[in-house]
Design goal:
Layout (H helix, E strand, L loop, with lengths): L2 H14 L1 H24 L2 H4 L2 H8 L1 H7 L2 H10 L3 H11 L5 H20 L2 H27 L5 H56 L1 H4 L2
Helix pairs in contact: 2-9, 2-10, 6-7, 7-8, 7-10, 8-10, 9-10
Length: 213
Amino acid sequence: MNFSEAFETTLNFFRQGGFFMLLLGLCSIVALTVIFMKSIGLMRSKILPDRLGSEVERFEDHLEAGTIGNLQTEFALEENSLSRLCSVALRNAGRTQGEVQEAVQSSAREEIVRMNAGMSALEVVITISPLLGLLGTASGLVTAFSDFDDKENIRTGIATALSTTIVGIAITVPAVIAQSIFSRKIELLSARLEVLLGRVVSACHQHVFFRDK
């Protein structure tokens, strides 16, 4: 089978699905878009760069050495969740630990919402794709059994039933896998941010440098 024949066969397969195949095609576009955007948005360099994370782990050492200014400049220049949250902590330095912690937690909630952006759309696709496939199946079976004397009608109905079921499952499976991977990654990044920010908040409260500012 050459390329043109394979293309025609594939095109006919999707045509057999009728209206429900169009809806499933829309679901697939949404799923692919979300997966692509989340793959970029959840890159470690955009949330918690390893090098900056190592510097934040040595936050108290920077305070003791008087090199916190360089780190503050780095926070201001970089565009990632860790630098933004650390900047919030530093701007509130000198207040009580509870006040600093509350300010950081408020900003952290915004970062978590940003990290979860698009996940609800993926959940919708996971929910409705198999249902659309089942609707297509039911519709195809109704068509197939509406007139037993019309063999072409039976063939078309069965083809519709099978094609929508296959496509519905084919969309759902990778979407479920992607959702699981993204959810786990968000959980790990959030936990790591919490640990690092805990150190920053504690240092901002305790160190004399900030209390005297």
